[in-house]
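User: Please predict the structure of the protein below. I'd like the answer in structure-token form so I can feed it into my own downstream comparison script.

Assistant: Understood. Taking the following sequence of 619 residues as input:
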Amino acid sequence: MTTLGVTLFGPVSVRRGEREIPLGPPKQRSVFAVLAARAGEVVRREELVRAVWGVDASPTAMNSVYTYVARLRNQLEPFRRQRARPDLLVSDSLGYMLRLAPDEVDTKRFTAYLRRARKLQAERLPRAAIEEIESALALWQGPPFGGVVGPFFEAEHAALSEMRLTAIEDRVHLLYQLGGDLSGELAELSALVRRHPLRERLRYVLMLCHLQAGTQTEAIREYNDFRTRLADEQGLEPGERLQQLYAEALKSAPRREGGRLVKPTGWRTETPRPPVPLAQLTRDVPDFTGRKAEIRRLHELVDTATDRGESAVVLINGVPGVGKSALAVHFAHELSTRFPDGQVQLDLRGYGAGQPMHPREALHRLLEALGVTTAPDMDPERQRALLHSLVAGRRLLILLDNARWVQQVRPLLPGDSSCLVLVTSRNGLGGLIARDGARRLRLDGMRVDDGVELFGRIAGRALVASAYPAVRELVEACGGLPLALRIAAAQTELSPSPERTLALFNGVDLLHRLSVPGDEQSSLITVFEWSYAALPERARRMFRALGRGSGAGVTLRTAAALTGESIEEAREHLDILVDAGLAYEPVQDSLLLTPLLFAYARYLYFRESTDESCRAGSS
């Protein structure tokens, strides 16, 4: 079968060989464009309605989707026998998928070229990177999604246009680094700057072209225009890199000496040094173990966002002590070469001994990490605008660790698709998924074999070999929690009698044994306490009540009976526990606690009962 050629840059069209396939009226063409933009993915019917008709679609819109899909199938596969299964536009119980190879859709080829270019830049192969970028830009026949309607295309148009601008900037910068002639770039860059007057990196590469062409006066004029506009519209100053380039332009501009004009030579000999790349990640855990499936999934989430030209936000959450921060830091180190402009890490202090970081302070600290100090009372809107200007076109990785609320994270999200944001939290942060498009990885305990390997790396493989059943039993009793296993392994390794210490862990009071004297952050009870203390009182009461149960699993009805609440009240409080990472809900209305969290709930329940008995006795 002849492959199709789908064009989304410019007027939306599809060809089979030399023949263009009619796509029908605008809304039918729009349904096709949504499916083509997400070729290879199932698009839910409700998503199609929202994409083309918007959130206020009439009830008849769904019927129109059925009609348009049927017509498109007939156009795409005119020789398909009646009642035969379609090969191209397929469906399931949820929605529809356009079964096309990535190289059959121009926007997919565009993102693939740019992805390869980024990889080549990271590998310091600028000429090959330029070739990939030029292949990508050659696909741009005009503004994307011409002739279609619907809110979906506004966002897609913006994302693709942003990718194109970044690619143009990258190409010019790479050409400059190679010493190529940039005079031919001046006209296009000047036109783009007029359309995007506050885009700092675009202005930067235009100034580079002027300086290389010897038109330093034009470079100075561009800087002054940018500085004036930025001050008038946002009350800000240009970034340090642009200021350095301006200083070089001033040094190399013609000047009058003795009544004649003298033009300095060789401005390139004074090219400002590139800013030192940000490298603020904490050190990778030396004995990081396992998590291969989770790391593979994280790569898939980042690559999917990159392919779509979106600003990737990836959320890692799970129960306390499950290793969210360690995984995020390890993954960030793996990706560091893909983000050569730097990696920034910020602890939002969502849980711990002190108070969670206020969003205003978090924004101030992030700007400070990027080299800009703002006044403590600076308006948050202006701070966010400054953040967006600073990161525009830069490949930055931002790790926001230990978040407690969405409100801590949202102001820190860059508006640029060139950045990646990793967020770790004990909480679900559902608003970050619903409103900000975050993709989530829920982290569970380690696989037993990986847990045994982690224990052996710290406590010694010889001990594991001689006492494997006891080590395996410990891993299972800990529910695969890396923090618990690290504490147990450290105690075992430090003990004069490792075998005896290992045997003690398999006693009934494992929870209280998992602590390191003098370090409260290495006490499992303390780490659990931080999450428990942040709960509303009724949710704390529910958590304590779960400790009365006969096991770590409980149904909604049983939980309601344990607290004397209605089903609706119990449901509300269990939802809070699940969101806080203190319980899982693997099946609807069935809750599950990890072994150590169940032990903690029992500890709280009996402590509360003892305190009540003491109070009753004293009265």
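That's the full token string. The chain has 27 helices and 19 strands.
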